[in-house]
Amino acid sequence: MNKQLFKISLIFGLIFFTALLALAQNKKYVWKTGTSAGYTYKYITNDPAKARFYTLKNGLTVILSENKKEPRITSKIVVRAGSNTDPKEHTGLAHYLEHLLFKGTDKYGSLDWAKEQPLVQEIEDRYEEYNKTTDVATRKAMYKGIDSVSVLASKYAIANEYDKLMGAMGGQGTNAHTWVEETVYEEDIPASAVDQFLTVQAERFRNPVFRLFHTELEAVYEEKNESLDNDGWKIQQTMHSSLFPTHNYGQQSTIGTIAHLKNPSLKAIRKYYNDYYVPNNMAVIMVGDFKSDEMVKKIDQHMGYMKAAPVKAYLPVAEKPLAGPIVEDIYGPTSESLAIGYRIAANGTKEALMADLVAEILSNGKAGLLDLNLSQPQKVLQVGAYTRQYKDYGIFSIYAAPKEGQTLKEVKDLVLQQIELLKTGNFSEDLLKAIVANQKLSALNNIEDNASRGEDLMSDYIKSNTKNWGKEVSRIDDIAKMSKAEIVAFAKAFFADNYVVLNKYQGEGPQIEKVEKPPITAVETNAGSQSDFLKMVAKIPTERIAPKWLDFQKDIQHGKFGEAEIFAVKNTDNQLFRQYFQFEMGKWNSKLLPLAAAYLSFLSHDKKFYELACKFFLNVDNQVTTVGLTGLQENYGKAMQLLKEVLLNGQVDQAAFTAMKENLLKNRQNNKLNKGSMMQAMLSYAAYGKNNPYNFTLTDAEINNLKPEELIAVLRDLFSYKYNVIYYGPAGLPEYKVMLEKNHQLPTQFRAYPEAIAFKKVAQNENKVLFTDYNMVQADVSWYRNANQYAPAQEVTADLFNNYFGFGMGSVVFQTLRESKALAYSTSAVYGKPRKKEDQFYVTAFIGCQADKVDDAIKGMNTLLNDLPHNEKAFQSAKMSLSTQLETERIMEDRIIFSYIDAKRKGLDYDLRKDAYAAIPKISFQDIQKLHHDYFANQAYTYCIVGAQKNLPLSQLSNYGKVEQLSLETLFGY
User: Fold this and answer.
1) % helix / strand / coil in the chain, to the nearest 5?
2) Burial of 230 (0-12, 13-18, 19+ CB in 10 A)
3) What is the pLDDT of residue 12?
4) Which one of 482, 624, 845, 969 is most buried, counting C-beta atoms within 10 A?
5) Fold of 768-972
6) pLDDT tens for each residue of 811-839
7) For position 225, what pLDDT does the model report?
8) Which helix (H) or strand (E) holds 461?
9) Are 354 and 471 in contact (CB under 8 A)?
């Protein structure tokens, strides 16, 4: 062993011994065993989530955490298998399988399984033969055969019946994801639908049928092609492969290689399912409104049929220490950036915990070394640090973006200088206390949320099989015990020349191979059909939950603060407060407002707020400006005084101002390299014409001529304009008003808002194509048209129409364009609702696809925009889903106040949901058909297309309407 390795081992040995000693002394969080209702479970004392950990007789892990705040339940069914356990010759397999678990079984998803089964088997056999064939001509002929048999099989398949089952019971957020060590199936259901839900899930995992495979395969191809256009994905993949040259973390991507995607094996997928989808390798995690004693019994009754089996664990060869620095260059169309990565030890180790803490010391967004020394003085355009932890190893990442004229090497040197400061202990002890206080604050916020609890429990199960939950619960306390000397010792050992540097350059790299579009015949979806299983589930008794509507007079405490109105809701759960000063003016009133907000973030006040465990922000949108302050109620007075100092007594900082202008100009140039920003700009152009809200901004010359005094004046004058005060916190209105009067001074009289520019939406009288050239594998296409003036009664019809027609996996648009025709990975179409009573509804649609599919995709969407398919069962399911959503929705905390303000902007003084709920049973299919006829069918649209002109010649685009190729200056206004 060399001296350096011996030194590191000695340091970590001492740290480990210290950790053991601390653990032995810490009796606050210990594992205990409980028994109730005939089931034994484990739990951690003083666990805020009060989670129970059961292991059923078949090895299935059940994790339950009760939360009675709303009558809904978050469910995550977790399999401890992902791309890490993909067979070497079939990468991407776990991800394929995730998609196929939505296709049904022999009991649902099929009209006639006896007739469908031999065709499904034939497709599987044909794919095996196809997989082994290399001759190009033979493969084409074989795929044509697969396509023809798939069309025959689809006549017996019911596409997306799983989504219909979930929608009918009021499920929301149906989703799943695959990552390196996990595949997770996620749902949010009404508390009354547990029996229906568990019946469906038990069947889902009993005997999944891999039907409609080749159209789903094409959706995965599209997902792969999307990743090829995503520079962030390239950076992530290269970081993994560089840090893990041996481990599957770096050697097997989740989506898989193009070669493997082109050669799928249904037999290999079935084997993978049989090997890993066994109860002793799975967990059912549920958080929400239930009784644990009852829930575990129900889960056991439904999932107890599953049989345990040995699971082959992935046993990696230990990675050798990095002989770095390792430098890789990446090219793509977006702006330049830098990423530096270090390898972290296994989950649950002291090193993993220390790495998390060190990431906070470097970058917490407010008071870290990178924040204070690089971000706030604007020595770089962007910078931050974070950790991503897996079971065997983790990744410590630092990302940064250069200023104008700055090289990536200069950025790297600045970042490494901050690491050296860390290693020499050049940071305050107070920072450690502030980190602990802020983590406690975050924990208080997260514990109230079902999704956050579920995410934490899921993560622990994946990484440690629940063994480390005690460490998760005690995490903040453990961090609080860490001394500065420990952190410095860790930093010296951890940060050496053992890192990866990724230089992301703007430009073209090696030619990207895309997954070519195979010839696919549209398959049947049988959207109007139902299996006997679906009918059976619908008959399972459920107790309807009584909806709760807001009473804006009773649920909100109304008060006056001079000319300002106060809207308050009491926090009865904890000692956190959230306060907002809201102004009915924004960017449309003054182009300087958003710039003043940007300047404010660089005037070195974030550290002080962070030390108070408080957060402050100034947000400016087109029509509303909000000053927000949140944190611990005990620090309210100090935080308000600091807010006053920041806004009213801010001083000119010429250096910060000069750097801000440079960075602002650089950010604006970077926006022109981002396809998402281009599409946003084009949609604004489609809605309002050439002069629109998106390009309503200062020119570069105007920015260069700005003076810091102008922005300081904007900040100082802000509270002279009329505002409303919003408060959610533990103080009642009288007590809060006293605190507010003590810490905040009103002007004698409010000033009138600067007159806002009046943007007028344009009428779409003829088909038109807006096109912007962007070097990408795929193409993004959006449709836009303005519709009728706002009418409150039409909101519920709009919601129901969107649920049925174009929003979600069960919608007509998704089923037709993705499930049947395999034209896209993502697609949607909605009747959009305006923000204010003076505004209009609007129609928008989207499809992202390969460039060679654009013509088919546009024709497919246009057919649906012109002709609304009638599926009465799907329509009734959409009605039931919307009703259940309204029954179980609980608007709480400060959202009560924001709901009231939103209603006022629409000219209402009551909760519109009550009217919507009463109207749903009366709405007929003819009502949404009329909406479609009046505002969708045979209308003129503006097509917004972002893609590579070499793949989309203007002569082709002219088939859809008159083409206007927009320059970036026209789109962005600079």
Assistant:
1) 45, 20, 35
2) middle
3) 40
4) 845
5) Cytochrome Bc1 Complex; Chain A, domain 1 (3.30.830)
6) 999 999 998 998 888 999 999 999 999 99
7) 77
8) helix 450-464
9) no
* pLDDT over 50 (residue 11): no
Q: How far is CA 791 from CA 445, 485, 687, 788, 827, in A?
A: 36, 64, 19, 9, 27
Instruction: Give just the sign of the alpha carbon dihedral 697, 702, 704, 706.
Output: negative
Q: What is the pLDDT of residues 919-969, one digit of tens each?
A: 999 999 999 999 999 999 999 999 999 999 999 999 999 999 999 999 999
Q: How many CB atoms lie within 10 A of CB 420?
A: 11
* 3 state DSSP class of 806: coil
User: Given this model, what pLDDT does residue 733 score?
Assistant: 97
Q: Report the C-alpha gap between 795 and 828 in whole angstroms.
A: 19
Mean pLDDT of 495-500: 96
pLDDT for res 603: 73
The tens digit of pLDDT for each residue in 464-480 reads: 999 999 999 999 999 99
Q: What angle do CA 297, 301, 303 make, to 5 degrees?
A: 110
Nearest of 16, 416, 434, 395 to residue 236 by alpha carbon: 395
35-315 and 557-743 have identical folds: yes
pLDDT digits 0-9 by tens, 871-887: 998 999 999 999 999 99
Return the sign of the alpha-carbon dihedral for residues 456, 895, 811, 688: negative
What residue spans define the domains of the chain?
A: 35-315, 557-743, 768-972
Average pLDDT, the chain: 93
Amino acid at 844: T
Helices 136-154 and 113-132 pack at an angle, to 10 degrees, of 170
Question: H-helix or E-strand containing 455?
Answer: helix 450-464
Question: Using CA atoms, how far apart are residues 256 and 254, in angstroms rounded to an integer?
Answer: 5
Cα angle 829-835-841, degrees, rounded to a multiple of 5? 45
What is the pLDDT, as a whole number, of residue 629? Answer: 97
Name the CATH architecture for the domain at 35-315: 2-Layer Sandwich (3.30)
Dihedral, CA of residue 128, residue 132, residue 138 and residue 141, to nearest 10: 20
How many residues are recorded in the chain? 974
Q: Are 595 and 625 in contact, with CB atoms under 8 Å apart?
A: no
Task: Reply yes or no: is the peptide bond before residue 48 cis, omega within 30 of 0.
Answer: no
Tokens representing 550 are: 């807001």
Pick the CATH number of 557-743 from 3.30.830.10, 3.40.1710.10, 1.10.3720.10, 3.20.20.70: 3.30.830.10
Phi, psi for 805 (deg, rounded to 5): -90, -55
